[in-house]
Amino acid sequence: MSTTRRVGRPRKVAPDFDGDPREQILSAAARLFEQAGFAGTSTREIAAAAGLTQGSIFHYFPTKADILAELLDRTTEPALSYVADLQNLDVSTTQRLCLLNYLDALALCSGPYNEAALMFLPEAREPMFDDYWRKRQVLVDSYQEVIRAGVESGEFEDDDPARLNTLVCALTESSVRWFDRARESPRETAELVARTVLKIVLRERVDTEAIVSTTVAEYGDTFPGIVPVTTALPDAR
Q: With a cut of 50, which residues of the chain have pLDDT below it?
């Protein structure tokens, strides 16, 4: 991701939106952070892209860091909010991992901009964003609980659960590097990630496509609101 600051005047969008100004700010910031990086984007540029005054931004977000924190949370909190429900769902461990992975990948790939890639910004590792990483760790730990249960039941490869979990999480997070939202469907991509994860962890060779499609079809809609609500702004080029 480029961190080169753009020169010249910020691109402007006419302030004719009917939506929530908070969502306009988040959408504009997501696009600009992805294009120019966190340090390379000013609140003035965010305001111009959102069709708002610079002062109005601070009414919703006291600092630019608060905007990034909200965008980061949106890539984790949807899946994390369903962890308890998944644990109580009467399904096999394989299906539970399938659903957790599907919901996580769907949250990472949803939205008009690649918000999830913002986790790889160098600034995202600063202490002010520790709360996001704690939330992400809770989700990672939830993966490990499912993987450990699968190893103990014999469904998953008899491997080190911690190492297997690291591989699964790394594969899932890598989707933000190659997913092309202009040409690919978030839901189809999430199913692809889930199929690939099952191929890695399952002890027996089975039809992973059938497992994922059946599981998602039966339970996927049980978890409404998984797609972040950030909406695309017109590109004022």
A: 1-18, 226-237
Least Cα distance to 26 among 40, 47, 9 occurs for 47
Residue 163 DSSP SS3:
helix
pTM value? 0.78
pLDDT tens-place string over residues 73-128: 988 888 888 888 888 889 999 999 999 999 999 888 887 778 888 999 999 999 99
Q: Please list the residues that pair with 156 across neighbouring strands.
A: 202
> Could you tell me if 109 and 175 are in contact, meaning their C-beta atoms sit under 8 angstroms apart?
yes
d(CA 228, CA 75): 8
Give, for 159, the enclosing helix (H) or strand (E). Answer: none
According to the 3-state scheme, what is the secondary structure of 24-60? HHHHHHHHHHHHHCCCCCCHHHHHHHHCCCHHHHHHH
Phi, psi for residue 123 in degrees, rounded to 5: -65, -25
Residue carrying structure tokens 């809609």: 221
